């Protein structure tokens, strides 16, 4: 990051902090970090700005203008001397700060704190088509759009994000969010409506009523795997703030058998739940909601011991399942998620193995290049890689994608490697965050190794609430960090 860009980002940061009665000096003193180290990982920022402008030519088409597509577009404009880039995105607010939706749903942010206009962040050198892609034809290097017909490209980047499927839960629609005690943080308006029903839930508990909060995690990959737990932690704190925690049970129902795939973070979360008196039931997938009766139905799947296998010298484990009905006063729904229909119905999607179920784009996990179409790349939530559906992952992916795309345009092999870095600032309460960072190794990879990454810290709260949002808008989206 160049000095003038860092200075501009710091000015934005100062404005944000002043709104909360903090100076940057005080915040950084609390963190115990230098300005540059605290604001960004310097090695990542260099990759976004230091490359000499390339003279490559070719028509680049980016489908999707969210965090991934917008950041990539800005990076490519910096790296290519005469860029020919078209971006297709129908949403005029596609760059809205999604990580902030949890805070909107719990009254920490207002909706206007996270909403932004796409036009303010796309570079002027990029042609923006406000339309939707309905089909991909990579054999002929074209896409079909709703209003603009067929569009050709030489190089394609898929950055569409993913699709939410509330309708696959029996009795539920997206429009029901914010009614009958049902909340969900996965759209801006849904988050705002969730704050309404959450306040009603807390008020009931404060009045002396015994209430139940239920939180789901589906049987598909989701954006930010920690998000369903964040809303639960913050619900706990809102109840505690109202002196009503003893009147509420809070139970997490994940489809899987772990709180987190990284053992160190799993163990830390279990301890945090135990201290807070929060409960959990593994291997439960939400399949139905009766809003009138306020009952959530889960598919509880598990293994039972069968006959002894003499050859393997172990018991056979037999899968079984049963439906479980759970009453609720507040239900937070994390909907099943897949790639958008246009992607998963195309030949770009994985065609084999378990990865095919979600329709994610079939790319090599390190180079982000498509396995079968070398002029196609994907990044962000839609990329079919083992991990990386977070904004922090996009921040690493877009520089790799930009460098490898330019290499292929030059007739060279892609050399840049995405190491699987994923960061989940796991909000564990109002004032505490556990900074969960890891990569392909499945081990913690903390940016600040002297600090135990499994510990909840106030300094990470300062970073999460006050600093990451300006970094997102004025650093990553601009291709600077």
TrEMBL record:
Residues 59-175 form the FAD/NAD(P)-binding domain. PROSITE patterns: TAT (PS51318). Pfam families: Pyr_redox_2 (PF07992). This is NAD(P)/FAD-dependent oxidoreductase. It comes from Sulfurospirillum tamanense.
């Amino acid at each position: 990051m160049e000095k003038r860009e860092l200075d501009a980002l710091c000015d934005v940061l100062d404005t944000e902090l002043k709104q909360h009665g903090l100076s940057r000096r005080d915040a950084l003193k609390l963190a115990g970090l230098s300005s540059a180290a605290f604001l960004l990982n310097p090695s990542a920022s260099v990759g976004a700005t230091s490359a000499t402008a390339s003279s490559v030519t070719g028509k680049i088409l980016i489908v999707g203008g969210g965090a991934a597509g917008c950041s990539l577009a800005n990076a490519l404009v910096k790296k290519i001397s005469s860029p020919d880039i078209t971006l297709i995105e129908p949403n005029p607010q596609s760059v809205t700060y999604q990580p902030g939706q949890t805070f909107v749903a719990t009254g920490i942010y207002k909706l206007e704190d996270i909403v932004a206009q796409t036009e303010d962040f796309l570079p002027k050198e990029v042609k923006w088509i406000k339309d939707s892609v309905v089909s991909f034809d990579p054999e002929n290097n074209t896409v079909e759009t709703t209003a603009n017909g067929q569009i050709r490209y030489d190089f394609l980047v898929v950055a569409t994000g993913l699709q939410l499927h509330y309708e696959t839960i029996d009795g539920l629609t997206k429009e029901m969010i914010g009614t009958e005690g049902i909340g969900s943080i996965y759209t801006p308006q849904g988050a705002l409506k969730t704050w309404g029903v959450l306040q009603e839930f807390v008020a009931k508990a404060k009045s002396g009523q015994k209430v139940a909060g239920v939180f789901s995690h589906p049987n598909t990959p989701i954006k930010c795997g920690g998000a369903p737990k964040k809303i639960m932690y913050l619900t706990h704190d809102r109840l505690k703030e109202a002196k009503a925690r003893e009147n509420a049970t809070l139970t997490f129902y994940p489809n899987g058998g772990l709180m987190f795939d990284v053992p160190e973070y799993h163990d830390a979360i279990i301890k945090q739940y135990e201290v807070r008196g929060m409960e959990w039931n593994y291997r439960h997938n939400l399949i139905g909601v009766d809003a009138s009766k306020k009952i959530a139905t889960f598919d509880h799947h598990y293994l039972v011991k069968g006959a002894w296998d003499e050859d393997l010298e172990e018991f056979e484990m037999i899968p079984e399942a049963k439906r479980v009905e759970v009453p609720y006063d507040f239900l937070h729904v994390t909907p099943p998620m897949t790639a958008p229909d246009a992607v998963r119905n195309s030949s770009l999607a994985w065609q084999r193995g378990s990865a095919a179920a979600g329709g994610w784009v079939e790319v090599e996990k390190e180079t982000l290049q498509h396995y079968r179409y070398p002029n196609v790349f994907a990044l962000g939530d839609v990329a079919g890689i083992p991990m990386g559906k977070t904004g922090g992952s996009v921040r690493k992916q877009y520089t790799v994608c930009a460098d490898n795309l330019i290499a292929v345009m030059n007739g060279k092999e892609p050399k840049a490697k995405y190491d699987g870095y994923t960061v989940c600032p796991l909000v564990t309460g109002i004032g505490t965050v556990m900074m969960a960072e890891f990569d392909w190794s499945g081990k913690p990879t903390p940016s600040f190794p002297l600090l135990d990454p499994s510990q909840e810290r106030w300094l990470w709260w300062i970073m999460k609430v006050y600093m990451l949002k300006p970094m997102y808008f004025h650093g990553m989206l601009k291709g600077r960090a």
